[in-house]
Every structure is written in structure tokens, then in C-alpha cells.
Write a structure and sequence with these properties.
CATH architecture: Roll
Strand order of the largest sheet: 2-1-6-5-4-3
CATH topology: Nuclear Transport Factor 2, Chain: A
Structural class: alpha+beta
Radius of gyration: 14 Å
Strand content: 35-45%
């Protein structure tokens, strides 16, 4: 992994940590004030200071896996992270895998997430 990929991978996985997801202060350190997410369920979420995230969807650190992580520089201080996310304990096969992408901005030396999207992944229709 490149240095940028290592940094963004660490931040993406931090956002999956129940201790961070339940802490408004920790979330505020990682999310940009203008953060927006297009969820895999089709909802649009806009961050508001003090928000926390549901931890019930994650049963533990080994309950999920990130594959094919990559980071691409889009412009000065802007990067795109993309990867496949797998929730191993998800009982609904159609929700186990998703394609994820995040746009990150380096704000005064700190990478903060601006945008995230999760899209359900169908294994039967992979294109290369």
C-alpha cells in the first residue's frame, strides 16, 4: 500500500470501530462538517455535529472484511478511496457485500471524509 492508502485505510477502518462510532467527539475528528453519505439502503445522510452511528450492524472487528482497497489522488488534498466491504455475519446474502467509495480532503494536515457511498454488490454480475 502507498502511504496515502495506509492512512485512508486506517481512517476507513476506524469508522467501523464501535468505540469510535459511538463517540461524537471521535466522529467529529474524522468527518468533515459537510459530510454526506449515500447509504447502501438508498438513504441520504447529512452529518450534524454530535451525531453517532449505529453499532448494532457490526458484531466485532473480525465480523467484516475490506478487499481491493485503493486510494487515488483526485486533486491537491483530495483523494478517492474505494473497496469491497463484506459483512460476514449478515444473514441476508444480498446485503453481505457492498462496493464502497469515499472522498477524503486533507484539511489543515488532517484527512477528513467529505462523502461516502455504499452500493450493494451482486457477485453474479461482476465485470472486469
Amino acid at each position: 500500500m502507498t502511504d496515502l492508502e495506509t492512512i485512508l485505510y486506517s481512517l476507513e477502518t476506524a469508522l467501523l470501530d464501535p468505540a469510535i462510532r459511538s463517540s461524537p467527539e471521535k466522529i467529529a475528528e474524522i468527518l468533515s462538517e459537510s459530510f454526506c453519505e449515500f447509504t447502501s439502503s438508498g438513504k441520504i445522510y447529512h452529518y450534524q455535529k454530535g451525531d453517532t452511528f449505529d453499532i448494532s450492524c457490526l458484531n466485532g472487528p473480525k465480523d467484516w472484511e475490506i478487499l481491493n482497497f485503493s486510494a487515488t489522488v483526485l486533486a491537491k488534498d483530495i483523494a478517492l478511496a474505494s473497496y469491497t466491504f463484506i459483512k460476514h455475519a449478515e444473514p441476508d446474502d444480498s446485503k453481505k457485500k457492498s462496493l464502497r467509495s469515499s472522498i477524503w480532503k486533507n484539511e489543515n494536515g488532517t484527512w477528513r471524509i467529505l462523502f461516502h457511498q455504499g452500493t450493494p454488490k451482486e457477485d453474479n454480475h461482476e465485470h472486469k
